[in-house]
Amino acid sequence: GENVEQHPSTLSVQEGDSAVIKCTYSDSASNYFPWYKQELGKGPQLIIDIRSNVGEKKDQRIAVTLNKTAKHFSLHITETQPEDSAVYFCAHKGNAGNMLTFGGGTRLMVKP
Amino acid sequence: DAGITQSPRHKVTETGTPVTLRCHQTENHRYMYWYRQDPGHGLRLIHYSYGVKDTDKGEVSDGYSVSRSKTEDFLLTLESATSSQTSVYFCAISELGEQFFGPGTRLTVL
User: Virtual CA dihedral for B68, B69, B75, B80, nearest 10 degrees?
Assistant: First the structure.
């Protein structure tokens, strides 16, 4: 599948601050962009997703923005809490098939 | 974990031995996937299935085979395990695009 670049690979923030993780993709046919949170010893869990017909989606403290022209999408976490500490993965899906391509992951650490 | 179980959860085996990992779902989802997760590589697709007896290769399929004889079960087989196959293996299921992951199997090949 087409690659997706995810940055930063690690992110440390103070509790209460915001965290932003960005992903860039190359497949112009991509139409679905999920974000996953993975806690230690567990499988990735879907936390939010966006489809190509919208530019932003919010769910409480989490939001995702999509810029199809620039081919990048971002995860925004506001008012971070220690339990937000985890590894976050972006992914995208093109028109062909039902497969996701994942970014390399971002380890987020929220310091109390 | 969205009605997905994986077995075993941990396994240690020796180089050259066959290994089979099982993924079981209770959601009746059409699609099932096997990924491996390694440091620095994120999640990489090994094989996937789009229906009973319908499977296809993913990005890193060499050394692996799969079978799906029932909707609920997707088996991943390492015919002759190698040390490079030491990894954490995740199964995922999907119906309409969103993928849901199982708890993972940690495999160590000595």
Answer: -100
Q: Compute the C-alpha angle A107/A108/B2, nearest 5°.
A: 80
Backbone φ and ψ of B83, nearest 5°: -60, -30
pLDDT in tens, A61-106: 999 999 999 999 999 999 999 999 999 999 998 766 778 999 999 9
Backbone angles phi, psi at A23, to 5 degrees: -130, 140
Instruction: For residue B2, count CB atoms less than 10 angstroms from its CB and return exposed for 0-12, middle for 13-18, buried for 19 or more.
Output: middle
Strand bridging mode B10-13 / B105-109? parallel
Which pair of structure tokens corresponds to residue B59?
């990005």
Contact present, A4 and A101 (Cβ < 8 Å): yes
- Cβ–Cβ of B101/A36 closer than 8 Å? yes
Give A97→chain B minimum CA distance, Å. 9
Of A42, A99, A100, the CB nearest to B103: A42
For residue B50, give both structure tokens. 């789009």
